[in-house]
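Appendix B. One record, verbatim.
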Amino acid sequence: MVLYTLPFSSAFLRVLHCFAWGLIFPCYWLLDRLLASFLITTYEKRQRSEDPCYFLAFCILISTPVYLVLLVASLPFAFLGFLIWAPLQAVRHPYIYSKRGRPDKNRAEQGTAGTPVGEWKAQGKSFCFCTANACLLPDSLARFNNLSDTQGRAREVGKRIRNGASRPQIKIYIDSPTNTSISAASFSSLISPQGGGEGPQRVAGVRRTSSLEYKVESNGEAEKEQEEGGNRDEECVPLNDCPSGVQISISAPEPEGEEDQKGQAANHKPKEGDSGSLDSRTASRESLVKFHVADGTLSNNKLTYHTSVLKKASARKRRHGDDSFDHEISAFFPANLDFLCLQEVFDKRAAGKLKRQLHRYFQYILYDVGRYAWKGCSRFKFLNSGLLLASRYPILDASYHCYPNGRGEDALAAKGALFVKVQVGSTPQDQRIVGYISCTHLHALEGDAAIRCEQLDLLLEWLAEFRKSTSHPSGGQGPEDQVAFDVILGDLNFDNSSSEDKLEQQHVLFTHYKDPCRLGAGEEKPWAVGTLLNPTGLYDEEVSSPESLQKVMENEEGRKEYLVYPTSKNHCSSQKGRKIPLKGSGRRVDYILYTEEGLQQDWKVDVEEYSFVTQLAGLTDHLAVSMRLTVSTGEEEP
């Protein structure tokens, strides 16, 4: 299957398309600005109330006649451009594949520029997936969700994702299945930030080798070395309490180049209290810390690396009730993120800005996914699907299908499903090890459960066809690919708590695919939280930064103020027109599902950790969701 790197196969058609869009764009932009000037966000209302010189009404009176005159003048050109643009969509490719060329050698070795596919360990690998609704609509439409400045938000969304994902990930392996006692004092020495000097770095008994593996020195003596620019206030304690069988491995991306840092400083002006952008490398390394040791949880009062304690060559037993994996509400995207699926990346210019930011971390990206006009869809489409997929592993095949049954305003966008096959490794016999990722965004209107169920039926049907058609290498030659995982991500626009969503909750999808947050139809696990934020509170000080939003989401009472809760038709309205919320922790409409069916024989997949991510606070009305999946081959480690 061919991956389309350009929207059209012919250079003449590309030039003709650019010419047509150049005629349409002035009218499109003027109409967008005209509508946006009458839709005010709560943030702008607050500015108006706090700043006596903020004359919004006066600006509207001045700009509206200007916009109207220019809009009328641009209509003839837009109409001519539309006559050229619409027929061209019949031969337009359904997506654009972008690959960052010539990745840096050091970054490639560490997995930040594209992960090598040949290194498949006998015991398997772990893969991290994330999904988020970015709400990058044209500015006038985004304001209906209380969001503005789509172009600026697109840049910031990309920065926060790549800075969060490029944090170093520490894993502590303990050879002894019984001795897991590592003191908090020893951990505080591990997390001492170092300066940006060159060469090997030593951190309180932990030596950085060229292979980026940190090992505890057996003699227990700590070499304290504070380079210029390091944290001089933090005490470094020797690792005398660590057992001799402890091995600490750290995967840490190299700092960004000087040009990249200058670009960040010029383009990004963070809001007050917004540390979630992690703009500097130092800030990005001061991320979460959670140490899971024995029966307790050790914490540090500083934001540090997200750390997991693992028992080598043995199953890890978590301390989260009956769950066999870690779950948390995190202020940062997971370190070493492998696959990212975004929804509602509708605006073309915003998609380009977002892609440029993500390409600094992900090497392979599919964007501008979907159809326009009448091509492949039952109704005319003004917007594409809004789907975007980014991967650190090579993309082998991709396919897109448009849902044919959308109605109302949802029918104006080419919502559908994007199916992707990635190569994550190979066997000693050169047999490819692959994974399947499906990204989707379902119908949004309430009361249309039948439409969503039909779309889920189509999703399963299309996925089965895609897997069947891509089960062998191109040309049908060679052995069948070995499948490591099959994951579905996206905004399904229904939750597992609302009585109105019972039809979707009982869909056959959930008999084939597992939802880590779900106990059963209509029943959530106690730790699961909603992912749909109340748009009216997006700019409140209590949730204005990733850290503050994280604290609110961890508090059951605080969540009720800022999450959208499921409601029942049988409940009457309470004061201020609000409906009484049902049980649960908000509407969870963003999903990551995985299956154990159709994988390589004797292989097993397990959830390692599941997170609700608040790092996009103030940029979208959804929480991001991430999941780390461990694929074991059933073979013993040599």
